[in-house]
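Problem: given the chain below (166 residues), write out its structure.
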Amino acid sequence: MSNDIFPATAAERKTYPVYSGVLKYFPDALAAVAHLSWVGNEQHNAGEPLHWSREKSSDHHDCATRHLMESGKIDTDGVRHSAKAAWRALAILQLEIEGAAAVPGTAEVKHDNCAGCKWHIEGSTCNLCDDFSLWTAADGGSYNADGVSDGGRHKADVVADEGWRK
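Solution.
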């Protein structure tokens, strides 16, 4: 796949039945996960538009497991633990897919030493890490704590220019 969500050809796109293969299968579950997104945004980003603050939590596997262990119960905020496990599973999958989209050699910045990188998928070049000190500029330079390279380009500009998704 390219940076687009769906394949380019009509025949390939038909193998992604989002409505009939997901929404129609799990309408109540997806509504519960959507409500959880709103509840979580009110808790972690009060007063802000709905968005996923990825930097606020990266322990998705541990959280998903904990919520699975409490499935069938309602959490203190009134949301089902199973909905929270499903949200965490979706977060894990989204980050996996984004990490796999980081094709080596196609972007200006990368890092190979992912010690401490919460976004890295083993064996891939990571373009999702927030620790700028682990990023390497194409010219061999580095990025400072603010994400500005020795060459003066900001990490966010590189991400936008190269089509990387964060």
